[in-house]
Amino acid sequence: MSLEELIKGCKKHDTKAQSQLYKLYASKLFSLCLKYSKNYAEAEDNLQDAFVTIFNKIEQYKNKGSFEGWIKRVTINTALQRYRSVKVFDIINEDAIEDVEVDIINEDISLDFLLNIIQELPDRYRLVFNLYVLDGYSHNEIGELMKISSGTSKSNLARARLILKQKIEAYKANLNSQSL
User: Fold this and answer.
1) Model confidence over 2-44: pLDDT tens digits?
2) Which CATH code of 1.10.10.10, 1.20.1250.10, 3.90.550.10, 3.30.360.10 fits the domain covering 111-179?
3) Which of 12, 43, 54, 173 could share a disulfide with 33, CB 3.0–4.6 Å?
C-alpha cells in the first residue's frame, strides 16, 4: 500500500491503514519523542498521544508539503503540550546569561551519554535546546510554540548549553582521571 493510500485509509478510520502507518513511522517518531521527554516511559506516552492526535487530525493534512514533516510537527506539538499545562517557563533577566558553545567533538562521548544529559536538563531548557539545535526552529518560532518571548528562548538555550558544557567537561575530567 502506498503512503497516499495509507493516508486515505486513515482518513476513513481504517484500522489496518492506521496500523501500517504506525509501523511505518513509530520508530522515527519515537526518536523525536525521546528528545522532548524526560525519560523512556514519557517518550512512549508522548508517542501514543501523538498517534492519537495524528489519526484524529489526519483530515487536516491536505497533501501539501511533506507528510512526514506534518506528523513530526504534530508529534513535537503533542510533546510540548504536556509542558504547556505546567508552568515550566520562568520570566528571567534575558541579559543575565552569556551564550556558550558546547564542544561535543570527542570520540569518548557516546550518543547515549549525550541523550541522557539532554534529558536531564530542566524542562524549559531541554525543550528550547531541542527545538533550536536539533530541529532547527528559530527563536521566534519557539516563542510562538511555547508562548514565551524570543529573548526567553535565547536565554533558555544559553542556560541549556551552559549546563551541557559543564556536564561534558565533568565527564571528560572523570575520564581523564580514570586513565591516569
Assistant:
1) 999 999 999 999 999 999 999 999 999 999 999 888 889 999 9
2) 1.10.10.10
3) 43
